[in-house]
Amino acid sequence: xxxxxxxxxxxxxxxxxxxxxxxxxxxxxxxxxxxxxxxxxxxxxxxxxxxxxxxxxxxxxxxxxxxxxxxxxxxxxxxxxxxxxxxxxxxxxxxxxxxxxxxxxxxxxxxxxxxxxxxxxxxxxxxxxxxxxxxxxxxxxxxxxxxxxxxxxxxxxxxxxxxxxxxxxxxxxxxxxxxxxxxxxxxxxxxxxxxxxxxxxxxxxxxxxxxxxxxxxxxxxxxxxxxxxxxxxxxxxxxxxxxxxxxxxxxxxxxxxxxxxxxxxxxxxxxxxxxxxxxxxxxxxxxxxxxxxxxxxxxxxxxxxxxxxxxxxxxxxxxxxxxxxxxxxxxxxxxxxxxxxxxxxxxxxxxxxxxxxxxxxxxxxxxxxxxxxxxxxxxxxxxxxxxxxxxxxxxxxxxxxxxxxxxxxxxxxxxxxxxxxxxxxxxxxxxxxxxxxxxxxxxxxxxxxxxxxxxxxxxxxxxxxxxxxxxxxxxxxxxxxxxxxxxxxxxxxxxxxxxxxxxxxxxxxxxxxxxxxxxxxxxxxxxxxxxxxxxxxxxxxxxxxxxx
Amino acid sequence: xxxxxxxxxxxxxxxxxxxxxxxxxxxxxxxxxxxxxxxxx
Lengths: 548, 41
Hints:
heterodimer, A: Sodium/glucose cotransporter, 22 helices, 0% strand, B: mainly alpha, 63% helix
């Protein structure tokens, strides 16, 4: 990074944080602090919802994923428009009419206090586990690329996000996310236009598409069905719909966003806009990754993109031979691409891939791992080594914005659930509003500090980080199931719903432990088990109480 | 409680907006399929 990039990055970080504090000044009640007095317009909610969903690691990984595996990841978002329709039609009006602060508060109105408490605890456990990872994962990657100590990257992102979130509450989160989403969009467009501009003069868009397609990078629609593969049309539409229903319908970090809407119509428009805009946004991020691939067909990339892994590889005896093989295969692939001889290109590309696979395995052995995964480093390597000054700062600002928007939304929602569903409900029921407002601020600071400490610790956990992150998403289907029971099965009461949640969670964990089923399907299974067992238990309870 | 009472600011009813979004999804899938068949070979 050059001085201009640091200026762009610094100005963007400071500007976004100050804007959030300014827009949310004067939060004097819990209603203002936690729900922005229900005054948010649809466009602020829409961009804020999108910003929360786009974490930094998604931003960094998605482009790398496209470089390595093609664009099929985009299919994960195909269920989103259907989920937005269902949530707009059924969840938004119910949440608005009930006047709740959290999604789980609704469960007490519909069922009982223990069901609300269980759902709140599930949320706090799953989000609490994930919040440190959301902060540490981008910090680790940015550290390797920027050369800053990892604790500095973690503390800068964490402290800024905590400062404006604790100061202004949900209004600060929403308005900063509004600007952060604009910064992210500018960053994506800048990256895409720059990579196309950097392609050799003789490579037009048609040639670039032909080369990317020949390497299998433009697989945006895969119709072949496979239970164990989550990136095809079927799992994208059905599994993706359940994932989106769970996330947008039951996760407080998203529900709280549309509870702040001026009206049901404004909240619905915010969600539906997300359903329209998210797929093209992901398409362009992935397409950027495919174009980075084409760029590296014509400009030789490093054998391995992970800088530490590359250093470890260079110390191996087999490295020089491997490098010679790689240079030769790269030259053949480049020549075939220049001639647009696609069969020869495919063959040479297969050789390059195979050599890279051996290099990653060798680097992994040198670093004491089974295999190194350098997907997260592809895009940042390209940005830092090839993009002109100023644009690098903008793209880095977009990545920091993505990280901070996710973190601020998570600590805000964790603080809200802890305050409303645990503290105010079970510990201190009769305090004045000022006490709850101060408690909300302290809880935001607590969850922010917790996120930073776990993020610093998570950096030493290696592959466990991914496991913890996945563990968090094991709970979504159960939460979705209990909300479906609440909305559509009026005869199901509190205790059957509570027991059904426990059975649903047990089923998800059993399937996860005993099969290789693609993750997207676990949400559908959890939801189905909760709904089915809730109905059966409820029918059983009614039958038992019926006079003989 | 009438959950459908609030009218959308355009197109007259939420049903029409939802149908348009469904049509949008079908178009996106068709476009992705065309894109894949055209280039990914």
